[in-house]
Design goal:
The structure holds three protein chains of three kinds. Chain B is an alpha+beta fold. Chain B contains 17 helices and 20 strands. In chain B, 36% of the residues lie in helices and 17% in strands. Chain B is globular, with a radius of gyration of 23 Å. Chain C is an alpha+beta fold. The chains are: A alpha/beta, B alpha+beta, C alpha+beta.
């Protein structure tokens, strides 16, 4: 399907890039579970409020502070104040390394050319300030047939393909 | 040398299409220049003073004849008949059209070349000793490691937008011919007492407006853990560097602000964590890559004597030829510093001559040095005369390697939007002043390095004599520096005092050089004399 | 006078605002006066120029000359390669640049 950004992806097996079927506003969400609708609170607030489930990670925040409360996190929104600020890439990957399985949403200045790399770092939903062109998203996500190294997504690196 | 397999080729081909798509969106107005700029920079495309500029990666400075012929073809077809070799062993074209850039990338991909990560806030082309695989003093060829790291650092998702650029150099000899400690991440391959291979790691170096020489953070990272260590360094920097001031975002600034000890501690902690993730490549992958770098089939029983009966040839041999590890072979350096020329520039025709020489005499291999010269790494001594004759025919037989006219200069204000002053005319005037070869040889090793602005692409911080162009109220002005070095005894040059105009800087250089000649002790190079007497020994001679 | 310059989006060539469009020749540059910002915003939005900026210029007998050395070099070409400038046949063409 021409308007389906899910086909293929970064070395991923079936389903790794499947968007949620449904309405137009969900096509940048790559998860099957219902989207949490509780608004995200800042990291300090989240650590103080034991019933909060959605947390906002700002660019300078240390996501490792979530380690003790990780089991109650259902949504992490990672903010990109400007697209050239790459701290959020490390935040997402570290969350996945910590074993977090819930949603990681990229918000803010998210440009289409970044989302392939964001997917590889463990982001699985996107809510950019400026709407993305769906055809561009599709082509960007499907551009590269392989990856050279491990990241958060379970892509198989080229060296592993070479050596079986 | 390394050869792409289906995977490498598929990745480079995909990058061509990726950039074609990005270029299309820019030309259609779907992106602003602010948005396009970081994307084009990650593919080495700048907007320079007169046109776009495209920087082509030459990984660890190694090329074959087919690749150099392709570079010549591109120079002729898409540019204005020449290219410029850079201080990072790359080649750049100065007259590129945006609409043709994707086609150039497609041409490059045909010969296993690309422009990936040659600019922008990315992990840049990895540099290495240009004598790798030929030098008598290396413990192994460093290029298999450079190639392995090249692949592993291509499109690293976590480091899609690093705070600034990140430069890696790999050497495997005691002598440092790659200015390793002026890099963000310098690696020296070493053997420990048990005979195992590993890396001495030197993070936090860099030139630019705030120069720092890299410090040693580890004496020995085992070879199979080097990618984890590199990721740890990158992650500590990516998470903790400032993002509010582009001039303070290089890793050297973070190292300086945290202190070496604290930076090392954080890296070690992250390193121990990353090791548990199992992201290192296996030894089998290193060995697969290393197999491409097995030494060529050197002949044995070759004569070690060089027929020096032609005196002009003998002069060239004395200056341009370095010892090779295989008996009967030599390393031949090709000067790209003709007295009235532009350092590092090479015409398409000259590229083709050198490609032929590499194919015929050097196992189809050549190297680009960070000093903006070329190297034929593996030539039979018996072939040197024929090589010299062909080079002379092509205007490439200057005999000034490491002498006062072998000047590194950035493109400067003649080409570069960042520059404050022109570099090339200053280099030309100094070269003319010292053109006499006997005088040059009498002065011995003397490395002059000229940058047209504080970004220091011309490595002025590492010059025995450095020159920095600045803008003084709308006119070009030049500061003089003394005492820098990019070799194994790395040092940072210091400013002598007030600056000079264009004519004045040439005179000032000559006064410094003449002062050296007066006070040198037997066997001392300019740099040795400077280190002995210090700035005070030169200041009066320079300023009177 | 205030003159406007930038680069052509497709070719990268240095261009100058001539009152109606973008010329390769600095001699065609016109005073943009207080319309500079509006012209640049419109032209960049329409992709007719890349990275435009306003600079001081001076009208001389030979034509308009930019005030700063950087734009003087941009106007003609590299001082070290007269053969690659806009006036390769005229060895004196660059006398005013430096």
């Amino acid at each position: 399907m021409a308007d389906d950004p899910s086909a293929g992806g970064p070395g991923g097996g079936p389903g790794t890039l499947e968007p949620t079927p449904g309405g137009e506003r969900d096509w940048l969400r790559f998860r099957d579970d219902p989207a949490p609708d509780e608004p995200a609170v800042t990291l300090d607030t989240f650590l103080d409020q034991s019933n909060a489930v959605s947390v906002l990670i700002e660019a300078g925040d240390d996501v490792r502070r979530l380690a003790p409360v990780l089991d109650r996190v259902r949504l992490v929104e990672i903010d990109f104040p400007k697209f050239r600020d790459g701290r959020g890439f490390s935040s997402a990957r570290i969350l996945r390394e910590m074993g977090y399985k819930g949603e990681i949403k990229a918000i803010g200045d998210v440009l289409v050319d970044l989302i392939y790399f964001m997917r590889r770092c463990g982001f699985d939903s996107f809510a950019p300030n400026v709407p993305l062109d769906r055809a561009d998203v599709e082509s960007v996500l499907n551009r590269y047939p392989h990856v050279y190294q491990h990241a958060a997504a379970d892509d198989v690196p080229i060296w592993q393909l070479r050596h079986g | 040398m390394y050869k792409y397999d289906q995977y490498d080729q598929a990745m480079v081909d995909a990058r061509v299409e990726d950039f074609r798509d990005q270029t299309r969106r820019r030309l259609e107005g779907k992106m602003t220049d602010d948005q396009f700029k970081p994307l084009r920079l990650k593919n080495g495309l700048y907007l320079q003073l007169h046109a776009y500029m495209l920087r082509v990666a030459i990984p660890y400075g190694t090329l074959n004849s087919r690749q150099l012929r392709k570079l010549a073809h591109i120079a002729r077809t898409y540019d204005r008949g020449y290219g410029h070799f850079t201080t990072r062993q790359n080649l750049q074209y100065h007259w590129i059209k945006l609409e043709q850039a994707p086609d150039i990338l497609a041409e490059l991909a045909e010969v296993e070349m690309h422009c990936i990560q040659t600019s922008g806030e990315s992990i840049r082309n990895i540099s290495a000793d240009h004598y790798a695989g030929a030098a008598a003093d290396e413990i192994m060829d460093p290029r298999p490691w450079a190639e392995t790291l090249r692949q592993m650092t291509t499109f690293m998702p976590e480091f899609s937008y690093l705070p600034r650029k990140f430069k890696i150099a790999v050497i495997a000899a005691k002598e440092d011919r790659a200015a390793m400690r002026w890099h963000d991440f310098g690696l020296r391959i070493v053997k420990n007492d048990a005979g195992e291979i590993g890396f001495e790691v030197y993070p936090g170096g860099g030139m630019g407006r705030t120069p720092f020489i890299a410090y040693k953070s580890s004496d020995f990272v085992p070879q199979h853990q080097i990618f984890s260590y590199l990721q740890a360094v990158l992650r500590v920097w990516n998470r903790n560097a400032r993002r509010d001031n582009i001039h303070k975002q290089r890793m050297k600034i973070l190292v300086h602000e945290l202190g070496e000890e604290e930076f090392t501690r954080q890296v070690e902690e992250e390193f121990q964590h990353i090791l548990t993730l199992g992201t290192d490549f296996p030894q089998a992958e290193y060995e697969r890559i290393a197999a491409y770098f097995t030494p060529p089939p050197f002949e044995t029983g070759l004569p070690d004597e060089i027929d020096r009966s032609d005196p002009d040839f003998a002069v060239w041999v004395d200056q341009q030829v370095a010892p090779h590890k295989a008996p009967g072979y030599a390393i031949a350096n090709i000067s790209l510093k003709p007295i009235q020329g532009i350092g590092g520039d090479m015409t398409a025709e000259q590229m083709e001559v050198v490609a032929d020489l590499a194919e015929r005499y050097s196992f189809d291999e050549l190297r680009v040095a960070h000093t903006q010269n070329l190297v034929l790494p593996h030539v039979r001594k018996a072939d040197l005369y024929a090589i010299w004759q062909a080079l002379r025919e092509a205007g490439l037989a200057d005999a000034n390697l490491d002498l006062v006219t072998d000047i590194i200069a950035c493109p400067g204000l003649d080409y570069c939007t960042l520059a404050n002053a022109r570099s090339i005319p200053v280099a030309q005037k100094i070269a003319e002043r010292f053109a006499d070869l006997d005088r040059q040889k009498d002065l011995g090793e003397l490395k002059i390095k000229i940058s047209g602005c504080i970004n220091a692409c011309g490595h002025h911080h590492a010059g025995h004599i450095g020159i920095l162009g600045v803008d003084r109220k709308g006119t070009e002005n030049y500061q003089l520096l003394l005492g820098g070095s990019g070799d194994e005894e790395t040092s940072q040059a210091k400013i002598t005092g007030p600056g000079f105009d264009e004519a004045g800087i040439v005179d000032a250089v000559e006064r410094a050089v003449e002062r050296y000649r007066e006070i040198r002790e037997p066997g001392e190079r300019f740099l040795d004399t400077y280190r002995r007497v210090g700035m005070d020994g030169f200041k009066e001679a320079i300023y009177g | 006078m205030k003159i406007l310059t930038g680069n052509d989006l497709k070719t990268g060539s240095v261009v100058w605002w001539d009152g109606e469009g973008w010329s390769l020749h600095v001699e065609d540059a016109v005073d943009a006066g207080d319309r500079a910002e509006a012209i640049m915003a419109r032209e960049e939005a329409e992709c007719r120029v890349n990275g435009p900026y306003a600079i001081d210029g001076e009208k001389t007998a030979e034509g308009v000359r930019p005030a700063h050395i950087k734009d003087r070099i941009r106007a003609l070409g590299p001082t070290v390669r007269p053969d690659l400038t806009l006036k390769p046949a005229d060895p004196n063409a660059g006398n005013w640049v430096i």
